[in-house]
Amino acid sequence: xxxxxxxxxxxxxxxxxxxxxxxxxxxxxxxxxxxxxxxxxxxxxxxxxxxxxxxxxxxxxxxxxxxxxxxxxxxxxxxxxxxxxxxxxxxxxxxxxxxxxxxxxxxxxxxxxxxxxxxxxxxxxxxxxxxxxxxxxxxxxxxxxxxxxxxxxxxxxxxxxxxxxxxxxxxxxxxxxxxxxxxxxxxxxxxxxxxxxxxxxxxxxxxxxxxxxxxxxxxxxxxxxxxxxxxxxxxxxxxxxxxxxxxxxxxxxxxxxxxxxxxxxxxxxxxxxxxxxxxxxxxxxxxxxxxxxxxxxxxxxxxxxxxxxxxxxxxxxxxxxxxxxxx
Length: 327
Ligand code: NAD
Hints:
- There is one protein chain.
- The protein has helices spanning 3-26, 34-50, 90-102, 146-149, 175-187, 196-204, 209-214, 235-244, 259-272, 290-296, and strands at 74-76, 85-87, 110-116, 119-126, 129-135, 141-143, 165-172, 218-224, 254-256, 280-287, 306-310.
- It is α+β, with helices and mostly antiparallel strands.
- Strand 4 (119-126) and strand 5 (129-135) form a beta hairpin.
- Helix 1 packs antiparallel against helix 2 (34-50).
- The model is unreliable at 316-327 (pLDDT under 50).
- Residues 20-21, 23-24, 30, 32, 34, 37-38, 64-65, 83-84, 86, 113, 115-116, 120, 136, 170, 222-223, 281, 284, 308 line the site of nicotinamide-adenine-dinucleotide.
- Nicotinamide-adenine-dinucleotide binds next to helix 1, helix 2, strand 3, strand 8 and strand 10.
């Protein structure tokens, strides 16, 4: 392929990915499976790596998420809410571990977590009180969805210490809620949601909080944005502290000292995934030590100290069994 053909191919892929991204992030209504989007994005990444001068700042490879909707107040993220680099196989994970080891002096430990397939949100507490909740949006500007987030019962409105902090997590729709919601929608002649992720995003981006309240959403907190006075030195300590403060964290996380342990965790959850009552689309692996995280730093789009291993595409859950309709 010559340069001109590469440019044409790049333009075509960008146009397609922008269209898919708009449908997914803005409309909450994807027209293609995630695996197809990921594959096209990889094709574009490969071409851009061969022709680095053709990379533009507005390329889908350089951008996080989608534009925030005008219907909502905007929220600025002082610390950007980034995406994650992807790994699709063992070699990608080993490469990640090698880069982490090369980028720091001391041995690296990792924390493995389930990658919850929902909507990334930021929660701000001032003096221990929940004051603001936002979507990730384009990473720097999100949508104010405070009233909708307040309806999630597992989310504390007051925390145990009078801390001021901004934390991050994933709001999601458990399988049971998703299946009963879609059944009710179909009975009313409405179009069902494509998957629990889009149902969760669609519910939280409703202007009427009563709708979100009826949708039985849940949330897991997994990270910290701004937290001035924290003396914690590792991600695992942060997870424990979040739990102590009354936040719901995912209980399945595990500290791993070697990449072999990481691989075992990945394999275990690849098999166990169907037994969870919520959707996961991969495993997130994070360098545990916060100083090492800082040393490794960030690309424009994602931290260098974390990676998302993506499961191969699988069948969507469609069975509905003995579920009480509550919508
Ligand atoms: P990503 O989903 O690959 O990874 C980043 C996100 O992971 C974070 O923002 C956070 O929301 C989430 N996450 C879940 N559990 C986490 C944990 N324990 N720790 C940290 N983060 C956790 O990246 P992305 O930028 O959100 O979106 C890309 C995804 O969207 C891909 O899966 C892609 O296939 C999909 N997508 C699909 C379409 C489509 O048309 N089907 C279009 C655009 C994007």
